[in-house]
Amino acid sequence: MDDLLTLQKLIDNAQKIVFFGGAGVSTESGIKDFRSKDGLYNQKYDYPPEVYLSRSFFNEHPELFFKFYKDKLNCLNAEPNICHKYLVKLENEGKLKAIITQNIDGLHEKAGSKKVLLLHGTIYKNYCMKCHKSYEAKDIFEKEGIPRCSCGGIIKPDVVLYEENLDEDVVRKAIEAIEDCDLLIVAGTSLVVYPAASFINYYRGDQLVIINKDVTPYDRKANLVINDKLGNVFSKLK
Asked: Domain extents for the chain?
């Protein structure tokens, strides 16, 4: 309880909050993460998830890529949870300056957040690799086999696959937001995926909070570490 009181005080006193979130933000919306004991990495497939979700696998085995993608990453029916909603509240109060997310599920936007930086893209944007025509998520998830454009090109989800670079403009904005904030809340991420995890090193302030079920490599740098589910934490904040 003392940790929650400390967190509430930090939020109350902050004017420029940045929230950096990972898969743990969305697990209570029914979306599986990657690295927990029930996550995708601990399920049995013909290949590891990072192979299925790599650019080379996409190029060489598009039919298997889309089978995995549509089976495991379809979260169109997921709804925002208490964490997403609390961040909307902070943004509406003028306290939250940016959400930096590694998630591709679109739940922050679905909840009503406007200042969202998508490090790994989103399932809601898709484009033809041949003519660059845009498509909606349902054009991927509701079609059998490899989704194709009217021109015949493959429709690729606008998500960052393994072996692909992050969008430079998004990276720049994320780093600028972290450098300028007076409270950095890192939540629901193991902080082992690079380069995203290294962004924390750009924080210049002295109010770093890490909220995660398990320990992270950056815990020693934090002023406050809370090892708990995000729902348990954010449901008690005001």
From this structure: 1-29+80-120+166-238
